[in-house]
Structure formats: C-alpha cells, structure tokens
Amino acid sequence: MGEIEANIKFAVCVDNDGYPASLELHKIYRVLPDEGANADGDLRIVDESGEVYLYLAERFILLELPRAVEKSLLQSA
C-alpha cells in the first residue's frame, strides 16, 4: 500500500439530508486526508459523482477496517 493509500480512511454515511443524489445512506465512502477540513469539522469525501467534496463530519462515522477490507475497497474505487 502506498503512502497516500495508507492515509485514506473510510466512513459510513449516517445523514444524507439535502444530498440524496451525492450521498447514499449507510454506504461506505473513502475519506481523503485534509487536516484543514478536519479542523473545520469537515471530511473530504469521494461521493457518488466520483468527485471529491467537503461534507460535515457529523454526516459520517469513521470506520476502522481490517487491512484486507481496505485493500478491497480501494481496488473497487
């Protein structure tokens, strides 16, 4: 796993209010590293469009997944 991939995290969406086309409730999303966004209470998410956007962190729950699951999710992205 590369350095950038090692910093990618995953989160499950628990609130898609106002973004039904961009975020699917209960779906796992890639979270890209962004210290500035995190400091503001946001997460940088790769959403349904395949684009990267900032969303309120409270819309998601960060996940700790086994390495094999993370690898599988990254390959399917």
User: pLDDT average, as an integer?
Assistant: 89
Structural domains: how many? 1
How many separate helices? 3
Structural Rg = 12 Å
Distance between the termini: 15 Å
Tell me how many strands there are: 5
Q: Per the principal axes of the C-alpha atoms, what is the gross shape? A: globular
CATH class: Mainly Beta
What is the correct CATH architecture?
Answer: Roll
Please state roughly what percent of the residues sit in beta strands, choosing from under 5%, 5-15%, 15-25%, 25-35%, 35-45% or over 45%.
25-35%
User: What's the CATH superfamily, by name?
Assistant: SH3 Domains
How would you characterize this protein structure?
The protein has 77 residues and is an alpha+beta fold. It has a single domain, classed as SH3 type barrels, CATH 2.30.30.40. 26% of the residues lie in helices and 31% in strands. It contains three helices and five strands. A five-stranded antiparallel sheet has the order 4-3-2-1-5. A hairpin with a 5-residue loop joins strand 3 and strand 4. The N terminus is likely disordered.
Helices and strands in order, then pairings?
Blueprint: H1 3-7, E1 9-13, E2 28-32, H2 35-39, E3 42-46, E4 52-56, E5 60-63, H3 67-76
Antiparallel strand pairs: 1-2, 1-5, 2-3, 3-4
Short description:
The chain is α+β, with helices and mostly antiparallel strands and 77 residues long.
Name the features:
disordered N terminus, single chain, 26% helix, alpha+beta, 5-stranded antiparallel beta sheet, SH3 type barrels, 77 residues
